[in-house]
Specification:
mainly alpha, 93% helix, membrane, transmembrane
């Protein structure tokens, strides 16, 4: 992928995030909560897996 296209996509994504947070703060907060919940579930699953290896 050309460097210019990567830069355009990156800055477009950043602009979208800023727009989303400015005009839909509730939706942005819900998205962050959902991402956090997924990360916590992954960490819990990894912890359970490692615990079961030790037993």
């Amino acid at each position: 992928m050309p460097v210019l296209l990567k830069k355009l996509l990156f800055w477009g994504f950043i602009a979208f995030l800023i727009y989303f947070m400015a005009f839909r703060p509730e939706g942005a907060a819900e998205m962050v909560r959902a991402i956090g919940a997924v990360l916590m579930a992954l960490a819990q699953g990894l912890g359970d897996f490692l615990t079961s290896l030790m037993a």
